[in-house]
């Protein structure tokens, strides 16, 4: 039986395309998650949105509760996870290799 064809994408070509075409969408999704999160938190609990290109060249947006209670709120109630889910994002554990 013949071997299946294999497609290999060159990250040096793909990552600039991702940066050019999806970075704005990723940032908008992060802003939506932040808006959902702010609606769940008291007004005195700040939420920060940071967009950047990570070390592998992927566009990333991070949403962070920048308050001492942020970690406890996520651990107890999963507020960040729920805010992301409400924005239509697929929530999965990120495995570091």
Describe the overall structure.
The protein is α+β, with helices and mostly antiparallel strands and 97 residues long. The protein has one domain (11-86). 46% of the residues lie in helices and 14% in strands. The chain has four helices and two strands. A two-stranded antiparallel ribbon has the order 1-2. Helix 2 packs across helix 4 (79-86). The model has no long low-confidence stretch (mean pLDDT 92).
- The number of strands is 2
**Helix percentage range:** 40-55%
Shape: elongated
Biggest sheet strand line-up? 1-2
Assembly form of the protein: single chain
Measured on Cα atoms, how large is the radius of gyration? 17 Å
Uncertain runs are: none
Tally the structural domains: 1
Arithmetic mean pLDDT: 92
Describe the largest sheet.
2 strands, antiparallel
User: DSSP helix count?
Assistant: 4
Task: Produce the secondary structure layout.
Layout lengths: L10 H11 L1 H18 L6 E7 L5 E7 L4 H8 L1 H8 L11
Antiparallel strand pairs: 1-2
Helix pairs in contact: 2-4
Overview in brief:
By secondary structure, the protein is α+β, with helices and mostly antiparallel strands. The protein has helices at residues 11-21, 23-40, 70-77, 79-86, and strands spanning 47-53, 59-65.
Task: Using brief descriptors, characterize the structure shown.
alpha+beta; 97 residues; 4 helices; 46% helix; two-stranded antiparallel sheet
């Amino acid at each position: 039986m013949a071997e299946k064809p294999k497609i290999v994408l060159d990250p040096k070509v793909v990552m600039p395309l991702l940066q050019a075409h999806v970075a704005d969408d990723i940032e908008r999704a992060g802003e939506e998650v932040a808006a959902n999160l702010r609606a769940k938190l008291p007004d005195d609990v700040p939420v920060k949105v940071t967009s950047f290109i990570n070390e592998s060249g992927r566009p990333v947006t991070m949403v962070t509760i920048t308050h001492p209670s942020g970690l406890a709120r996520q651990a107890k109630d999963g507020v960040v996870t729920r805010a992301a889910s409400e924005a239509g994002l697929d929530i999965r554990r990120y495995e570091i290799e």
